[in-house]
Amino acid sequence: METKDWLWILHPALAVVVIYPLLGIVLRLSLQTRERRTRRASKLPASVGREHTDLGHWLAAGVVAIILIALAVVIATKQADAGYAAGAAHLSLLLLVWLGTATALVALWRARRPLYRASFALLCWLGLIGLGLQPEVWRLSDNPLDPAFWQSHFWGGTGLAGLMLFSIASRPEIVRQLTWRRLHIAANSLAALIFLAQGISGARDLLEIPLSWQAGLLGACNWAERTCPDPASVPPPAP
User: Is residue 71 a contact partner of residue 131, using CB atoms and an 8 Å limit?
Assistant: First the structure.
């Protein structure tokens, strides 16, 4: 494996090592929090609710952070392979969008007023979408009427990030109001299903990404007929 290959597995490695273990802890604490609220004789400590909220925030921020890392790696490495064909101005704009999205995430974490929280969450989510719509980012489809759209790892991650940002932005309302709490439960039940789907689609996509030294040969294959040319007829990749 070359440096590019190691960079490409950084995103799934962080998901396996950090995000999914944290998800299990947050889900366990969510069940304990609900049990303590609904059962008068519960022996669970009062701290479970606070722990669930705090770790849930770290989970949400972690999801957004690894999406930013994945987008940066994909765009940077593909532009490098193409000799930075997009131009300095375009790449500078993408860098500003990336930094603005990361800044919006940090600002959302610190914001207190509802308008600020909603604004920073929306800005962060739109930044992720804008970066993900670049041609360097692989997507099965951009048409919601196409079944492939709902199988896309990118769009699944984007929807998951939106739900995570909603949880951060609405934290005070969730604590104080039953209606918001029920909405939070519904949104995060959906998020749990998307996490499951992301694990499946992510593993599928890893099977389709060749190592850098294999890309030339596999790019010459006919995927419809499932045939590949003689390796001797394919020129080696540029160093």
Answer: yes
